[in-house]
Every structure is written in C-alpha cells, then in structure tokens.
Specification:
Length: 437
C-alpha cells in the first residue's frame, strides 16, 4: 500500500471534534435574539442552496453521450484494451451463476477479456458452484480466500491485483446485471473522455418489490443527476462500488484498494482525485443491481456508507484542502460535505437544544432548501431516458414520499458520528444479502 492510502489514524479524535463543532453550530443560534436566530441558517441556505440548485439544474446533455450508437462494427476491436473483470463474492450462491454465465458471453473480444471471481471465505454453496462453473467455462479464473484473510472487499480485490494483467479493471458486485454491449460502450466512453475511471449509473432491478425499493431506485437516479451536475461544474465524481471501470496504471499509483476502510469505492475516489485522476460517470447503459428490501437491511447498509463516507474526509482532509485540488474541486467538496454530513448532525443538535430550551428550531430554512433540491434532483432523474429498468414516475405524491424517505439520513449520520466518536475503532465489512431478482 502506498503512502497515499489512509491508515485511519486518530479517527475517533477527529470525529469527536466534528461532533463538537456541529453541536455548537446547532445550539448557538438558540442563544441569539429571536430576530437573529435564523441568520446562520438563512446564510447557509442561500450559499449551499445556490450550490445545490446550480448542480441539479446544470445542462447535463454532454454527459448523456450517445453511446447507444456503439456497436461491434463501430469499434476497432484491435485497438480495444485488455480488461479484467473482478468480482469479490462471499455467500453469493443465489446470483453468482447468473453473473458468470452472462460475463462469459458479453460482447467483447474474448482474447482481451479475463474474468476473475474472488471467493472471499464463502460458507454457503458458492465454492461448489464456482468449481462447476470453472469446468463449464475454462476461461473463468477463481481465487479462494479463507474467511480469516481480512481486508474485506478491498483485501479480496488486492489479492486479485497480484495476478491480473489487464490495462483496465471492471469491478462488479455479484448481483450486477449488464447489457451485452455495456463493456464496449463503457470502454469507448472512458477512452474518448480520457478518464482514469468511469462509474456506470446504478439502476435498481427490483424496483417494483415494495415502496422501499422504489424509493431507492429514485435515490440512485437522483445521485447520478447530482454527480453529473458536479462533473459539469468541474467538481468531483465519486465511485459507487458496482459498475466501476478503473485504469490499472492509475490504481497502482494510488496504492491499490485501501483495506483500512469499510467503503473501498468512496476511499478510492479521493485517492484518485489526489493523484490527479479524473472520474467520469455514464448514464446509459446502467449497471443493474438489487436494492435492499427491508428496513433493518437498509439501516445496516446505510450505516456502512455513512461511516465510510466520513472516514475518507477525516483521513484525507489535509490533501483535500491543498493545491493538489483545483479551487472548483475544493469548493465542491466543501459544499457537499456540509450538506451530506454536517447538516444532519447540526439539525440533530438543533432539535436537542430545542427540546431542552423550549425554543423554536433554527435550521429549518436550510433543511427545507436541502430537501427541495433533492426533490428537484429526483424529478430530473426520473424523467431522464433510462435504458435499464423503468424509473418510477415523479408524480407529486411520489416525490413527497421519496423526500420523506431521505430523512433516514438525518437519523443514521448523527448516530454514526456519535458511535465513531465514542466507541473504539472497528472495521466491519457488513455484507448486503442478494436474493437473485
């Protein structure tokens, strides 16, 4: 691991300082005169709301590249790079067979495609399934790790890095579903755009399962809209784990995957940024995946996402404010951090102070602006052309319910911050179970 990969030192202390700062920011306005108590929230609503509105409303047409025109005949196959597809799998008996069968028939020159499955200590029938698949598909490569190997998904991917030879890596989750020509189009987009990495938009395959999966489908579309807006504004695009194409040379420059984080994709996004690598996002075609179907599963998943998202800011902040980043990138990250992570904690402190002092909440203007911008991003995303599963129709009642669904972040993020500040540092790679939709 190179020096650029964070080790997670002093995370508890940094989180405690963040908690104290947000607590003070949330409580302090309550001791101002009533006429001035809303002033901090109004100023932030104006500044951060302006950033969010510009991000969502930016013309994203140039990033809706007409990659649908890509076909085997339009690509000079002799010039295509070698690609290694990596899938870290643990207890994936329900979905892995489908993925392997599809990858072995994907539209890409067979001699330039290598498929690697890393069995990361599975305890179900995944090992036996992989043996059968290996016989059926001799081109399949299987790496077996013990359950005590450590490092989570990052450790599994790093082990594969020691064996592969491709120029590009496509990282997939075991439940991923792709169109036959997705890789061709993704590679063409990456090369033409001179990206160091490209993230496919994530689409939910089980949208119609229940309201929870429907809202997650809308959330993924909203996230892609915001990411594209950040990119158009010369900001920062982040990887999302599943459906990410990475240039091997740049990945090695970053030091591989960081085994000291619970979200390898978010951590790598910052290390690519610090190393000068540019990340793009491709709306169509998407990578399809399952959304979690229950509240407990959502709670576990979002805790991990929140913890990993905060860790990377605490780990890399000296480099994030340095001249390694452009002014636009630093401004984008600052606004994103305040909206995504600081606002929920400040709002929590605001409500706690309200209850103790029997005063009126002071940060409601900022919260209303943040939720309104999210609703606008929902609307733009769900109205965009999707080659994957149909996106929910953004009717008013659906938008209101989806906005209410986003309030779970205002519970999860404060809880994760408190836990990170007061409990000993632990690395738990919580696995999301897949049902085989």
């Amino acid at each position: 691991m190179s020096a650029i990969a964070a080790t997670g030192d002093h995370r508890r202390g940094k989180t405690a300082l963040f908690l104290i700062a947000c607590g003070w920011a949330g409580a302090a306005p309550h001791w101002l005169e009533p006429a001035r108590s809303l002033f901090p929230a109004v100023v932030l609503a104006f500044c951060l709301g302006g950033y969010g509105l510009r991000t969502v409303l930016r013309n994203r047409q140039q990033w809706f590249i007409d990659s649908s025109s890509t076909s085997p005949e339009s690509v000079e196959q002799a010039l295509l790079p070698f690609v290694d597809v990596l899938v870290a799998a643990r207890d994936e008996e329900r979905v892995l067979g489908r993925l392997v069968e599809h990858l072995t028939s994907i539209n890409y020159p067979e001699k330039k495609l290598s498929i690697w499955i890393i069995d990361d200590g599975s305890e179900d029938s995944t090992p036996e399934m992989l043996k059968e698949l290996k016989v059926k598909f001799p081109q399949l490569h299987v790496i077996t790790r013990s359950s005590s190997a450590g490092g989570g998904k990052s450790g599994a991917l790093n082990e594969a890095l020691l064996k592969i030879q491709g120029e590009w890596l496509l990282i997939l989750d075991a439940d991923a579903q792709l169109e036959d020509n997705s890789l061709l189009r993704l590679v063409e987009f990456a090369i033409k755009g001179k990206w160091s990495a490209v993230q496919l938009r994530k689409a939910v395959v089980n949208t119609q399962k229940n309201l929870l999966t429907r809202f997650q489908s809308m959330e993924m579309a909203m996230d892609a809209v915001i990411q594209q807006g950040r990119l158009v504004g010369s900001g920062v695009v982040e990887l999302r784990g599943n459906g990410q194409l990475i240039q091997r040379q740049m990945l090695e420059k970053c030091g591989g995957f960081n085994e000291q984080t619970v979200t390898d994709d978010l951590d790598l996004s910052f290390r690519l940024l610090i190393s000068g690598g540019l990340v793009g996002i491709l709306w169509n075609p998407p990578v399809q995946e399952e959304a979690v179907e229950t509240i407990p599963a959502l709670w576990r998943q979002r805790q991990r996402w929140a913890e990993g998202g905060l860790q990377r800011f605490f780990d890399y902040w000296p480099l994030l404010i340095s001249d390694k980043l452009t002014v636009n990138q630093r401004r984008d990250l600052t606004c994103f951090f305040l909206l995504q992570y600081a606002l929920p904690v400040v709002s929590f402190a605001d409500l706690m102070t309200t209850a103790m002092t029997r005063t009126i909440p002071t940060y409601w203007p900022l919260s209303i602006v943040a939720f309104s911008i999210s609703g606008l991003a929902y609307w733009r995303g769900c109205r965009s052309l999707s080659e994957g599963p149909s996106l929910p129709s953004p009717r008013p009642i659906t938008l209101l319910m989806a906005i209410f669904y986003l309030a779970h972040w205002f519970v999860i993020i404060p809880w994760v911050v408190i836990k990170m500040a007061f409990l000993p540092k632990t690395l738990v790679w919580a696995k999301t179970s897949h049902q085989g939709e």
